[in-house]
Amino acid sequence: MRQILVIPLLCYLFQLFEYCLFSLFGRWGDPHLMLLLVIFFNLYSGIRFSLWAALCGGILKDCFSTMPFGTHIFSYMVCACLGTFVRRHWYERGSPVSKLLMVLVLVTAHALIMAVVFKMVFEELRWGDVVASVWFPELLATMVVALFVFERLRDTARLLKF
Question: For a surface tag, which of 41, 110, 145, 161 has the fewest beta carbons within 10 Å of its beta carbon?
Answer without folding.
Answer: 161
